[in-house]
Specification:
Layout (H helix, E strand, L loop, with lengths): L6 E7 L16 H4 L7 H14 L3 H7 L1 H16 L7 E7 L5 E7 L5 H4 L21 E6 L8 H4 L6 H9 L8 E6 L6 E4 L3 E6 L2 E4 L18 H8 L4 E2 L12 E6 L3 E7 L3
Parallel strand pairs: 4-5, 4-11, 8-9
Antiparallel strand pairs: 1-2, 2-3, 5-6, 7-8, 7-10, 10-11
Helix pairs in contact: 2-3
Protein name: D-aminoacid aminotransferase-like PLP-dependent enzyme
GO molecular function: catalytic activity
Length: about 270
C-alpha cells in the first residue's frame, strides 16, 4: 500500500551525555537543561511531529505534541533501555499512523562529547582546537552516480527509504563502512543530503549545508531532510544554508557530515 509506512528517527543513547554539567557544556540545548542520555531527543521529537502534521496523522500528533508528549517519549525510551545499559547505542524510534510508538536498539561506537556538541567546525587544513570535533576518523564521501527525485519521502524521515538504500547499493556501501554517499537532486544537480547524514562544505570562508524548505509544499530547498544535528549547527552559527552544485565538489576537499547517532564526523570527498 502507498501509505503503508511509519515515521522514524535514529538517535544516540549515551551515558556519557550525563557528564555535560560537570564538563561545563552549557550550550548543548535540551541536553544541557535535562540530564538525559538521549542525544537531542527534543529535536527528534520535533521532526517526527512535523511529519505527522504533514500527513495529518491525528493520533500520532496527539502522542507527540507538547511537553507532555516529549516527557512521555523520554520515559518510554528509558523503560525500553532499562537501568543497566552502560555503553552507547544507536536508538531508533518509530511512530505509526495510529500513534503507536516502538523502539529498536543496536550497539554503536564511542564518540567524544566534542564531536556531539562542538563549539565550532574547524576549517579545512586547521587542526581541531578545544571543544571542536576530532578530525579522525575521517570518512570517505562519494557522489551517487545517479540522481534522486525530491519528494515528501526525502523531505521527511520515514521507513520508505528505497531511494537511500539504492544510493548506497550503487556505491557498494555497507552499514559499517566509514563511507557516505551524497544524493544529487534530479532537477538541478545540487547536493540534497547524505544517505545517513547531513553534509557541510567550505565555501567562501564558511561552512555551508544544503537548504531545506520550511514546509514540503513550498517547493523550495534541496529536497533533503531537516536533520537534527543540522538544525543544532544552524541555530548556533556553525554553518549556513547554501545550494551546493554537485559539480562544485573537488576531489580531496575536506568536509564534515553529521547525524543524530555519531554527531559531527570529518570527511574527505573522493570523486571516484
Amino acid at each position: 500500500m502507498a501509505d503503508d509506512f511509519s515515521l522514524f528517527t535514529s538517535l544516540r543513547y549515551d551515558p556519557a551525555l550525563l557528564e555535560l554539567p560537570s564538563k561545563n557544556i552549557d550550550y548543548a540545548g535540551w541536553n544541557s537543561a535535562n540530564r538525559s542520555p538521549f542525544y537531542m531527543l527534543d529535536y527528534h521529537r520535533d521532526r517526527m511531529l512535523r511529519a505527522a502534521t504533514h500527513w495529518k496523522w491525528e493520533k500520532a500528533i496527539q502522542v507527540l505534541s507538547g511537553e507532555e508528549g516529549l516527557e512521555a517519549l523520554r520515559k518510554a525510551a528509558e523503560e525500553f533501555i532499562g537501568p543497566c545499559q552502560t555503553t552507547p547505542l544507536r536508538f531508533k524510534i518509530l511512530v505509526s499512523r495510529e500513534g503507536v510508538v516502538s523502539f529498536e536498539k543496536n550497539n554503536t561506537a564511542p564518540v567524544g562529547l566534542e564531536n556531539l556538541f562542538p563549539l565550532r567546525l574547524p576549517p579545512p587544513g586547521s587542526p581541531s582546537g578545544p571543544q571542536e570535533p576530532r578530525k579522525t576518523p575521517s570518512w570517505t564521501i562519494v557522489l551517487d552516480n545517479d540522481q534522486t527525485a525530491a519528494s515528501e519521502y526525502t523531505h521527511f524521515k520515514t521507513t520508505k527509504r528505497d531511494m537511500y538504500n539504492s544510493s548506497r547499493e550503487r556505491r557498494a556501501i555497507a552499514l559499517t563502512d566509514e563511507r557516505e554517499v551524497l544524493l544529487v537532486n534530479h532537477d538541478d544537480g545540487s547536493i540534497m543530503e547524505g544517505s545517513l547524514t547531513t553534509p557541510y562544505f567550505w565555501r567562501d570562508g564558511r561552512w555551508v549545508t544544503p537548504p531545506v524548505a520550511a514546509t514540503f509544499n513550498s517547493g523550495a530547498g534541496s529536497g533533503g531532510q531537516d536533520g537534527t544535528s543540522r538544525r543544532w549547527a544552524l541555530e548556533r552559527g556553525l554553518a549556513v544554508e547554501q545550494a551546493i552544485p554537485a559539480n562544485s565538489l573537488v576531489d580531496g576537499e575536506e568536509c564534515w557530515i553529521s547525524n543524530g547517532v555519531r554527531g559531527f564526523i570529518a570527511g574527505v570527498v573522493r570523486l571516484e
